[in-house]
Amino acid sequence: MVRRTIGAVENELGFSPKLSLSEPVMDSLTRGLVMEHACKANYQPCIAAAVDMFYDSDNNVNTAIPHDIRPGGVLYYGQRSRSRSNRCARKTSGNRHQSIRASCYIGISCLLADGDYVNRLLEETIAANSPYLTEERVKIFIAVAESSYENARIALEFISRRTNEIRNMYGGAAKLEEVIFVLADNMANADLSTDFRVWIQSQNNNLDGSAGRGGPRAAAGEH
After folding, report:
1. Non-local CB neighbours of 44 within 8 Å, separated by 6+ positions
2. 25-49 mean pLDDT
3. HSE of 23 in the Cβ direction (CA atoms, 13 Å)?
4. What whole-number distance in Å separates Cα of residue 22 and Cα of residue 219?
């Protein structure tokens, strides 16, 4: 279904809006939403459009980027700049006195890094000496789950291994339920959906209390 939607939007609206023309707001919003998923799925025409709009060595080019294609461009830029993103994320995460806004930036930029780094970032959110505040830990997990199909897989494997620690370090059962629902929304292919349901329905998943009730609702798609 996602594949068909991407193709339909590409054919009807295209991935590169004509800046000289005014188009309906719904067209812009639809393009932006579909481009975000298309780039996450590594759909090359979407990435190519992001290249044209975002990637230019001249800092004076593309200073005003249309809102509707920013998600695709950010994802593409991260793919082209993994090492730069890693360095930036490590530099920023080394300062424990950053604001929540800076912490969110850490999460997003780290998600553009390699899988090992993303795993280490998630482990840091539940460490006894974690540099992140409770609210920041939740935001980082959500940013991981929403950033790409690959990182959604990493988030699923992490939460299935570390359910109790996440409950304790993220602020209790309600916060665990919150990240479960976000994760459910990002199980965007058959393999992810199947593995998510297997975990949710397992008798040994450590989903107790309200999170245990929320898990089955998420698996059933009751948002």
Report:
1. none
2. 80
3. 17
4. 41
Q: What is the dihedral of CA 144, 150, 152, 157, to 10 degrees?
A: -110
Q: Can you say how many angstroms the Cα of residue 25 is from the centroid of all Cα atoms in its chain? A: 24
The pLDDT, as a whole number, for residue 199 is 92
Category of 221 on φ-ψ map: left (φ > 0), alpha (ψ -120 to 50) or beta: left
pTM above 0.70, yes or no: no
pLDDT at 55 over 80: no
Tally the residues of the chain: 223
Residue 143 has pLDDT above 60, yes or no: yes
Give the dihedral sign, CA 136/193/76/12.
Answer: negative
Q: Rounded to an integer, what distance in angstroms lies between the CA atom of residue 55 and that of residue 52?
A: 6
The two three-digit tokens of residue 70, written as one number = 């920013």
